[in-house]
Specification:
Layout (H helix, E strand, L loop, with lengths): L1 E3 L2 E10 L5 E6 L9 E6 L7 E7 L4 E6 L3 E5 L4 E3 L2 E7 L6 E6 L2 E4 L18
Antiparallel strand pairs: 1-2, 2-3, 4-5, 5-9, 6-7, 6-10, 8-9, 10-11
């Protein structure tokens, strides 16, 4: 996982598999100035699903909730840059992201199949 020093709000994840194939994805810019928590989910053929999280340094930990477990990530397990903490992890086969929690902020994950095809918006955006 790395942060672009020219665009501090963008975070990138890069992984390589045994065949030498590269997978990359990232978390985009902040939606609001004081956005305390943002996450990204990505999948590519030959790779597990990855979850990347960016959250304020003020939070001592965050939790990734999945269909199989709740992973509590302490500050010492993250990378810290530009006042934010960064963390990425792969999900195991059959595991799906439910939500990410940091401080009193809980953001629920809406899987892509749940996006309304008629509008292209997540149900929460309608």
């Amino acid at each position: 996982m790395w942060v672009d020093s020219e665009q501090q709000n963008f975070t990138f994840i890069e992984a390589f598999n045994e065949a030498g194939k590269t997978f990359s994805g990232g978390i985009g810019k902040q939606d609001v100035p004081d956005e305390g928590l943002r996450f990204w989910v990505g999948k590519d053929e030959g790779f597990p699903t990855f979850v990347g999280v960016r959250f304020d340094e003020a939070y001592p930990r965050m939790t990734i909730e999945t269909t199989r477990r709740a992973v509590i990530v302490g500050a010492e397990q993250t990378e810290s840059h530009f006042g934010k903490r960064y963390y990425a992890m792969p999900l195991v086969d059959g595991e799906e992201l439910l939500a990410v929690v940091a401080g009193n902020v809980r953001k629920r994950h809406t899987p892509v199949p749940d996006i309304g095809p008629e509008t292209g918006f997540y149900p929460s955006d309608r």
